[in-house]
Amino acid sequence: MRIAQLGVGRIGTFHAATLHDHADVHELLIADADPARAAATAERLGAGARALGSVDEVFAPDAVDAVVITSATAAHAELIRRAARAGLPAFCEKPIASDLSGTMAALREVEAAGTVLQMGFQRRFDPGYRAAREAVRGGRIGRLHTARAITSDMAPPPPEFITLSGGLYRDCLVHDFDILRWVTGHEITEVYAIGANGGASFFAEAGDVDTAAVLLTLDGGALATATATRYNGAGHDIRLEVCGTADTIAVGVGPRTPVTSVEAGSAPGVPDPWTGFLDRFGSAYRAELAAFLRVVTGDLVNPCDGRDALAALLVAEACEVSRHERRPVEVAEIADRAAKPDAA
Ligand SMILES: NC(=O)c1ccc[n+]([C@@H]2O[C@H](COP(=O)([O-])OP(=O)(O)OC[C@H]3O[C@@H](n4cnc5c(N)ncnc54)[C@H](O)[C@@H]3O)[C@@H](O)[C@H]2O)c1
Predict the structure, then answer these.
(1) Which of 42, 119, 229, 230 could pair covalently with 51 via S-S, beta carbons 3.0-4.6 A apart?
(2) Structure pTM?
(3) Mutation probe of ligand 1 site: the residue of 6, 8, 10 with most atoms within 8 A of C-beta
(4) What atom in ligand 1 is closest to the CA of residue 122?
(5) CATH number at residue 294
(6) Cβ(116)–Cβ(312) under 8 Å?
(7) Ligand 1 centroid vs 250 CA: distance in angstroms?
(8) Atom of ligand 1 nearest to the CA of 281
(9) Would 300 be classed as within a structural domain?
């Protein structure tokens, strides 16, 4: 297959190496808003990778078999729409867009074109989360009553990323909302969200928070919490605890979990903590792209489509309304807004 990769920043560079190394990709075409970045990545990868002078070349007739979108968030929706118009299957990093109207417009165009859109919620490909889903769905924990999701980045991304990110709920916690739905099989129906700024001023200047906590109600009555921070000096801490009447299970708890017990007899620290998303989820990122290539060839049903991304984004949107208006917000309130034709 000939695959185009659009955007080679932090995550795009990693995905480019994965695609380049994959046996089914015979040529990787790389484009970036900054052509020098595309050229540098292609040169680093060597034979089988080629930089394009502009993104437009990707959408020329018969140029490629599929596109992988890893540009800055602000460019996702337009690139998704262009792929749909060109009849191309697309993999896109989350989110579809940082707002509801952009998301709905892209989704409607993809659905009208009938093209594939696979979204990059890589936790669905992590062995721990997969085992949790099987355990919950298989009845091991009994009746689910609570879940606790944690997303703690070791250090903040650059200020220019934050400005374009959509904020902590849409950028980070959206992963927790997606995985809560996927692991438990329950929809999130209501949220109450708070946020705080104790770190660099660029978060508040962008209207964002660097730390957040959310109370969530799931259909069926279970309750959950999700917390996130950009400042977790101990390491990159991504966990989920799922608790039921018969058992409690945990994802992300192991020798590299950046948490030190202060109980007597415990080890004094964590010698090799996870340090970032590429370290924590490297194999999951590779697995999701391998899955995408099988979706492109028709060998696999899309494991994470645009509707999944919308469902998680609706929860993130509800969090922003909740934080600003300091009230519990039903996700249905946001979904009703999204369903109106003028949302696009
Ligand atoms: N799934 C995950 O765990 C995960 C992790 C990190 C980032 N992401 C997502 O991936 C995306 C990229 O994040 P990043 O950290 O790599 O950002 P980044 O800022 O490091 O890189 C973004 C790249 O996109 C390029 N770009 C901007 N507009 C473009 C356009 N119109 N066409 C082509 N290229 C364009 C920029 O020049 C830059 O090279 C974001 O949407 C982010 O939410 C997901």
Answers:
(1) 42
(2) 0.95
(3) 10
(4) 1
(5) 3.40.50.720
(6) no
(7) 30
(8) 3
(9) yes
Which residue CA neighbors atom 15 of ligand 1 most closely?
10
pLDDT per residue of the chain (344 residues) written in tens, 0 to 9? 999 999 999 999 999 999 999 999 999 999 999 999 999 999 999 999 999 999 999 999 999 999 999 999 889 999 999 999 999 999 999 999 988 999 999 999 999 999 999 999 999 999 999 999 999 999 999 999 999 999 999 999 999 989 888 899 999 999 999 999 999 999 999 999 999 999 999 999 999 999 999 999 999 999 999 999 999 999 999 999 999 999 999 999 999 999 999 999 999 999 999 999 999 999 999 999 999 999 999 999 999 999 999 999 999 999 999 999 999 999 999 999 888 766 54
CA of 241 to the centre of ligand 1 (A): 29
Give me ligand 1 centre to Cα 94, in Å.
Answer: 10
Rounded-to-integer distance, Cα 249 and Cα 215, Å: 20
- My answer on whether 68 and 170 are in the same domain is no
Same structural domain, 294 and 160? no
What CA–CA distance (Å, rounded) separates 262 from 119?
A: 40
* 106 and 30 fall within a common domain: yes
- Structural domain contains residue 59: yes
CATH of the domain at 176: 3.30.360.10
3: CA distance to ligand 1 center in Å?
17
Q: Contact, 126 vs 175, CB < 8 A?
A: no
Query: 108: domain range?
Result: 2-122+285-305
**Structural domain contains residue 335:** no
In which element (H, E) is residue 117 found? Answer: strand 117-120
* Residue pointed to by tokens 């590429």: 278
Distances (CA, A) of 241 to 55, 91, 134, 183: 42, 29, 14, 11
The partner residues of 3 in beta bridges, in order of sequence, read: 28, 66
Using the mean position of ligand 1's atoms as its centre, give its distance from the Cα of residue 321 in Å: 25
